[in-house]
Every structure is written in structure tokens, then in C-alpha cells.
Design goal:
Number of strands: 3
Bound molecules: zinc ion
Largest sheet: 3 strands, antiparallel
Strand content: under 5%
Number of helices: 7
Strand order of the largest sheet: 2-1-3
Length: 166
């Protein structure tokens, strides 16, 4: 609501609070947080926030957001180096898919279609995987539900953790 009314600084405050309230919901806040920082005059604050979150609890959404930020601000080789180092510490399928995509776009040999093929396959794998799951009844799917459609509990559906999730 703050964002829609142009209160970008207030939106940033509210969205950053999510990482303290329940960090497992934090990935959902990142796209709007990035936009809020953009509108309020700079992405440096966004980078600093991602850095803090990364220190506290590394997650794929944070790592990918940071990679995209590096790509825009420092170029592809820094972005690829960062993502590679993060994947060694925190390996996930989505992170791997991102790395292959970056290598394919910026460091791939165009005559070599192996990266293209691998990326296609990791994309397909991700398409088959649910993104959110209910901690109470096990319901899972691609969409976020604040109320679980199966057991009707509020706040029990969260981004999936682990290698196939965050
Ligand atoms: Zn449920």
C-alpha cells in the first residue's frame, strides 16, 4: 500500500521488517523491495540489505537478487564469480540453473550448444518442482497461498527450503 501511494522509504522499512518477523517469507519481499529502492534513489541500500541477509541466512532468492545487482552494477564476470562462490556454500537447483544461464549468455561459446541443452534441462526440472509447501498438511504448489487451500491454516504455506528450494 505504501509503495502504491509513493511512500517508497516507508515501503522499504515495512518490507525489511519481514526478515526479522519470519525470514522464510523474505524471498517474497525482494521484487517489491528492489523496486522501492530504485524509486527512492538508489540500489546501494538494496545491496547492503542483501549482504546483511546473506550473512544471517544464505538463501537462493537473496543470492540470485545479489547476482542480478552485480550484473547491473559491476558486470558479468563479477556476477558469475559471486554466484559460483555462493553455490559452493549453498548449492540449490535454482542457483545452478541461474549459473548455467549466465555462463550461456556471457561466457558460452556460441558454437557449443551443450550449455544450451543443460540449461533447457535444468529449466524443465524446475518447472516440475513445487515452490511453496504447507508445513502442516504437506500441500505444495507453484503459487503462494496465505491460507492453505487444503488444511485452511493461515501462514503455514512457505517457500520450500533445501536443494530444490531456497
Ligand atoms: Zn495445509
Amino acid at each position: 500500500m505504501e509503495f502504491d501511494e509513493g511512500g517508497y522509504k516507508e515501503a522499504i522499512k515495512v518490507l525489511q521488517r519481514i526478515s526479522v518477523q519470519d525470514i522464510s517469507f523474505m524471498p517474497l519481499s525482494l521484487p517489491l523491495l528492489e523496486k522501492s529502492f530504485e524509486h527512492s534513489g538508489g540500489l546501494r541500500g538494496f545491496g547492503a540489505y542483501l549482504g546483511r541477509c546473506l550473512n544471517e541466512r544464505p538463501g537462493t532468492a537473496i543470492i540470485i537478487a545479489m547476482t542480478h545487482l552485480l550484473l547491473r552494477q559491476s558486470g558479468e564476470s563479477q556476477a558469475v564469480d559471486f554466484l559460483t562462490a555462493q553455490l559452493e556454500r549453498h548449492p540449490t537447483l535454482r542457483g545452478l540453473n541461474e549459473l548455467i544461464d549466465l555462463r550461456r549468455q556471457f561466457q558460452g561459446d556460441l558454437s557449443d550448444n551443450v550449455l544450451e541443452l543443460i540449461h533447457h534441462l535444468t529449466d524443465r526440472l524446475l518447472e516440475l518442482k513445487p515452490v511453496f509447501a504447507c508445513g502442516r498438511c504437506g500441500f505444495s504448489g507453484k503459487e503462494m497461498h496465505w491460507q492453505c487451500p487444503r488444511c485452511h491454516h493461515w501462514g503455514a504455506v512457505k517457500p520450500i527450503q533445501g536443494f530444490e528450494g531456497e
